[in-house]
Amino acid sequence: MTDHVKPALVTASASRSTLVIALYTAAIFLSATLLFAVQPLFTKMVLPRFGGSPSVWSVAMVFFQGVLLVGYAYADVLTRLVRGRWALAIHLCVMLGGAVFVPLSVANGWDLPPADHEELFLLGMFAVSLGFPFFALSANGPLLQAWFARSGLAQASNPYFLYSASNIGSLLALFAYPLLAEPLSTLSFQNGAWRYGYYLLVGLIALCGSLVFLNRDHDNPVLQAQATEAAPALGRMVYWVALAFVPSALMIAVTTHITTDIAAAPFLWVLPLSLYLISFILVFSERNHIAQATWMKAQPALLALIVLTLALDIRTWLVVDVGLHLLTFFVTAMICHGLVAATRPQPAYLTRFYFCMSLGGVLGGIFSGLIAPKLFSWIAEYPILIVAAALARPAPSWPTAREAGLVAGFVVLVLLASLPGFRDGFAVQPVANWMVWTAVLLLVAGALFSSSSSLRLAALFAAAFIVTRAYPPNVRHLETVRSFFGVHKIEVTEDGRFRALRHGMELHGAQRLTTDDGKPVTGRPVLSTYYHPDSPIAEAVDAVQDKKNGPARIAVIGLGAGSIACLARPQDRLDYYEIDADIIRIAKDPARFTFLRDCKPETNIILGDARLTLANATDARYDLIIVDAFSSDSIPVHLLTREALRIYLSRLTPDGIIVTHISNNHLDLSGVVAATAASEGLIARLYDEDEVPSLDPMIKFSTVMVLARNDIDLGLLQDWDVERPAPGQAPWSDDFSNLLGPLIAKMKKGND
After folding, report:
1. What is 519-541 written as a DSSP string?
2. Which DSSP helix (H) or strand (E) runs through 281?
């Protein structure tokens, strides 16, 4: 070969190498972007069928992790058993098969969910509607990396850098959806864009496979991934599964906790998932940004702070609380994923490695997303996984039989000491709160001094949780009920004056039990919270009753504790529309609340999503429809769209009105409601109640809007403030909604 030919060959080889790397990176990046874009896109399509419940996101995550596992298993089998050209042909057929299901839509026959077992119905809906294209996409990551490892390029010996590209694509899609796609486009446009992205990916995969398997050197042994080590043993694979289990399960548990017990602010669920992806990006990158030893040193102190805040129910500032939980989760994910990455096999076993990681992720998701909500009436999975995170720390050596025996004996003693509290159903008032605090502080301090032993660290943390669950400080009586729609807390205030119903941190009703001088309250319940006698909702009910010559017909969307029943007169007809069967049981139980029994025992309660059940109530006509489902921050968006308003209007009498209770800690919904009402030819008026000192600590001041066809229908409410849509404010519809706008509007109002 002449000398002038050699540089040309080297240049050609370098150009081919650059092209192959660029195409494989682009294909993996696009595949990951489509995977993470389809999750919020399709979940948003099905949310209205489940009342906007945040549990839909948890179940959806379990589904996506499960299908990802199947895709990884398929990639492993295809890589090990099928030659390159045939593997390419088979996978292209699979990708084209997935194209049959686009554009995306909910499959026929899956419109109305059942009254129970919503999780299984939701999994079936996702599987039938989305399962095959998601399966096809999920195989691309490991499959393309395995193909790249057979490319014969110098970089082929370490294809794991492509995994970072995959997670970067996932991360960008995760943030781009709520910040760009949702506020700037409709569901129809997003569906179309995703469809053409899928078609583009099929072409990229065909090109990537062709460059590796259809060139003239495709049978050269150098193109086959070489293995100089034995196949991973079963114990090593179980180790990968266990380490992947902890951060996956912890991610869902952290999300559930911060969106239930701290603040259900919009988009807060994005943060744990993004940190989960970032941990993968960092541990699989070629640069070691922070040493593993640094994460190991920081974790015990962070876990100790989490144990204290959870066990003693400590609250500080929102940013501090959320930041602590997220930082602790991220450090734990970096440790677990770092240990997984450090023990990864050679590229020949790459697909098996990813299968084990995916299996751990699926099992973690199943535990936190499906099993825990059925087993526990509170978010018990979070403390359990904090203990598991302590156990997942690498120990210098296995504990001796003597150490294990001492730890087991200690746990037994703690359980025996806690039995009286468990026996009395968590209603035992500690002799003094300081005793519980002292015990917890000593246990946590002991854990920090024992951090070199993961077993002792985990045992002492577990003891702290057990003690405070048996003897909760500062709580007179606590009962928790967990359903698909969230965790409901029925608690008696420390002074014994009120029994309150909370959904997470949000108050959904409270009943006075004793007077200020300690005497039991008898007779008709005294109203407080958002429904006190001078509240906007009470004023709206009065206005309708004043306007009617006879009985008023009232529909209320959202039952809560049933407080509004005490605003109705004996001759009025009252229908509640409630999606959560557990809420109905709580409101009907006179041992908990007596609003229904003492004020309106003949109240009719219709179980199911209000929009669907109202649409089916073709004979119903109401003088007043109260939409009281937005005080929680996980709002059911589908109850505020143009299509929802049309249903409400079809169920109103000619002079009937709609009242929307839009009090919210994080969202200013007044502009959205005004714009949507105007799009349907309705006028809107607002009553933003002034907060004034009150002797009743349970009184909550509300923001309420009334919608009517004309001013005369408002009656006594004509003095409420006229609310007009702001310039540029788009009405919400089933095809377009945007939580970012109301979030920004609330922040601006808070700064004014």
Report:
1. PBP-SSPPP-GGGSTTSHHHHHH
2. helix 270-283
CB 564 within 8 A of CB 695: no
**Which tens digits make up the pLDDT trace of 76-115?**
899 888 887 888 999 999 999 999 998 888 888 887 777 7
Q: Are 585 and 564 in contact (CB under 8 A)?
A: no
* CA pair distance 344, 350, nearest whole angstrom: 8
CB-side exposure of 625: number of CA atoms within 13 Å? 28
The token pair at 409 is 């004996």
What is the DSSP code string of 166-220?
A: HHHHHHHHHHHIIIIIHHHS-HHHHHHHHHHHHHHHHHHHHHHHHHHHSSTTTT-
Q: Give, for 510, the enclosing helix (H) or strand (E).
A: strand 506-512
Rounded CA-CA distance 306/117 in Å is 32
One-letter amino acid of 7:
P
In total, the chain counts a number of residues equal to 752
Gyration radius of the chain's alpha carbons: 29
Q: Which residue type occupies 459?
A: A
The C-alpha atoms of residue 75 and residue 159 are separated, in whole angstroms, by 15
Residue the block writes with tokens 């595949």: 31
- Integer Cα distance of 379 and 261 in angstroms: 9
Q: Per residue in 509-565, pLDDT tens?
A: 899 998 878 888 888 898 988 999 999 999 999 999 999 888 999 999 999 999 999
> In angstroms, rounded to a whole number, what is the distance separating the alpha carbons of residues 542 and 420?
50
Going across the sheet that includes 553-557, the strands are 604-607, 573-578, 553-557, 622-627, 652-661, 703-708, 683-688, 721-722
CA distance linking residue 378 with residue 481, whole number of Å: 7
In DSSP notation, 669-703 reads -HHHHHHHHHHTT-EEEEEEPPP---S-TT----E
Decide the pairing of beta strands 652-661 and 604-607. unpaired
Q: Tell me, what's the pLDDT at 530?
A: 92
Distance of CA 70 to the CA centre of its chain: 23
Pairing relationship of beta strands 604-607 and 573-578 according to DSSP bridges: parallel
Whether the Cβ atoms of residue 377 and residue 481 lie closer than 8 Å to each other: yes
B/e letters for 327-342, b = 16+ CB within 10 Å, e = fewer, are ebbbbbbbbbbbbbbe
- pLDDT at position 220 is 41
DSSP secondary-structure letter at 736? B
Strand ranges in 4-122 using DSSP code E only, listed in sequence order? none
Could you give the maximum distance between any two Cα atoms of the chain, in Å?
106
Helix (H) / strand (E) element for 507: namely strand 506-512
* d(C-alpha 338, C-alpha 328), whole Å: 15
- The DSSP bridge pattern shows strands 652-661 and 703-708 to be antiparallel
Measured between alpha carbons, how far is 170 from 141 in angstroms, rounded to an integer? 11
**Residues in Cβ contact with 578 at an 8 Å cutoff, skipping those fewer than 6 apart:** 558, 559, 584, 605, 606, 607, 610
